[in-house]
Design goal:
385 residues, alpha/beta, TIM Barrel, Arc Repressor Mutant, subunit A, 2 domains, 9-stranded mixed sheet, 3-stranded antiparallel sheet, globular, binds S-adenosylmethionine, binds iron/sulfur cluster
Length: 385
């Protein structure tokens, strides 16, 4: 009989405000009007964490991620207050990675020293592009010079673990423009680059009124292949669909998600996934989405948007949805430890994937092939019950 063994634990903290809403973005982010209620929101985060603590008694937190929204709208003393409250309630691993998402348009002088002192040791900058015309079309609040200055300020303050988010397949973008974006990114020598294809998400302005000149699927594929080669040449190894890192600089927090690890999610609209060895089940919990509703209800059952136990029928799909994004693949032993299911349930789908040349297996370890990586969604669908 396979047995579910709780995997490593991470903590996600959602900070939901932005200077303004970008027209392509469907994250739970809201244009902040007037003075933001930092103190009230932090009180709510702490109440939320207190409510979730019994789910993770005694477990060690290996990474923390402040996501948004624009976490860098919160001043360093606010981030320090959150981290102090969290570390007073949870056991942090001494080497825990602590990331803060940063919009270059919010980088005030002196902020980065404060974040470092507060305990943040990794920054993720939403750069998107270094082309000023593209940034304007994307409704960004910064230009390329501000983006470069922000990254340099952070490096001068002592941050050496920096990610840059770039998007490609932008309106009017050709291969040369995408290449230029990467060259400007390489010049800043970040440890990590996330390279996302711009997607038109329902409930966004871009979905309702798509901008002119978005590259079609074939053109987007050409940009992606070309950029993958450039990233590899520059020393950034791809380890996930959109993630590239220098040796040893993969994002521990995101890796834990993709390896089907556990995470507490606190804050407006945050999602968590927690395994229980005693109950041999996995709980998904999410919080109410709207920041004001969250602040009004935090710490009470009314702040919980939903609790859902993942059924055994759905577990293989949910596991593969994460693991098959990773180049490293998975082992059957790990599948059993993280789902509590016997790996024999995978056999029919694995046989099909291997016949089609999508996965290659060796001694119980499976990895997506180059062909499989091109058809990630089709491969994952094989594991739907
Ligand atoms: C929460 S935001 C990062 C921090 C900050 N809010 C910012 O934008 O500067 C996460 C990242 O997701 C990416 N992203 C957001 N919407 C996207 C979309 N529709 N298509 C592709 N990537 C998207 C962007 O690269 C963005 O930096
Ligand atoms: S992309 Fe970032 S800055 Fe823009 S609305 Fe979304 S979360 Fe806010």
């Amino acid at each position: 009989m396979a047995s579910l063994i709780p995997p490593p634990l991470s903590l996600y903290i959602h900070l939901p405000w932005c200077v303004r809403k970008c027209p392509y973005c469907d994250f739970n982010s809201h244009a902040g009007k007037g003075a933001l209620p930092f103190d009230a929101y932090i009180d709510a985060l702490i109440a939320d964490l207190d409510q979730d603590l019994p789910l993770v008694w005694g477990r060690v937190v290996n990474s923390v991620f402040f996501g948004g929204g624009t976490p860098s709208l919160f001043p360093p003393d606010a981030i320090a207050r959150i981290l102090d409250a969290a570390s007073a309630r949870l056991r942090f691993a001494p080497s825990a990675e602590v990331t803060l998402e940063t919009n270059p348009g919010t980088a005030e002088h002196g902020r980065f020293d404060g974040y470092l002192k507060a305990g943040v040791n990794r920054l993720s900058f939403g750069i998107q592009s270094f082309n000023d015309a593209a940034l304007e079309k994307l409704g960004r609040i910064h230009d390329s010079a501000q983006a470069e200055t922000a990254v340099k300020l952070a490096q001068d303050a002592g941050f050496d673990n920096i990610n840059l988010d770039l998007m490609y397949a932008l309106p009017g973008q050709d291969l040369a423009a995408a290449e230029h974006d990467l060259e400007r990114a390489f010049a800043l020598q970040p440890a990590h680059i996330s390279h996302y294809q711009l997607t038109l998400e329902p409930n966004t302005i871009f979905f309702a009124r798509p901008p002119k000149g978005i590259p079609d699927e074939d053109a987007a594929w050409d940009i992606q292949e070309h950029c993958q080669a450039l990233l590899a040449q520059a020393g950034y190894a791809q380890y996930e669909v959109s993630a590239y890192a220098r040796p040893g600089r993969q994002c521990a927090h995101n890796l834990n998600y993709w390896r089907f690890g556990d995470y507490l999610g606190i804050g407006a609209g945050a999602h968590g996934k927690i395994s229980s060895g005693a109950q041999q089940q996995i709980l998904r919990r999410w919080k109410v989405k709207h920041p004001q509703t969250f602040m009004d209800t935090a710490g009470t059952p009314a702040s919980i948007g939903g609790d859902d136990i993942i059924t055994p029928e759905r577990l293989p799909f949910e596991y593969m949805l994460n693991l098959l994004r990773l180049h490293e693949g998975f082992s059957e032993r790990d599948f059993s430890a993280r789902t509590g299911l016997d790996a024999a349930v995978l056999a029919p789908a694995l046989a099909t994937a291997s016949t089609r040349g999508w996965l290659s297996g060796n001694d119980g370890h499976w990895q997506p092939t180059e062909l499989g990586r091109r058809f990630t969604n089709d491969v994952i669908e094989l594991f739907l019950a």
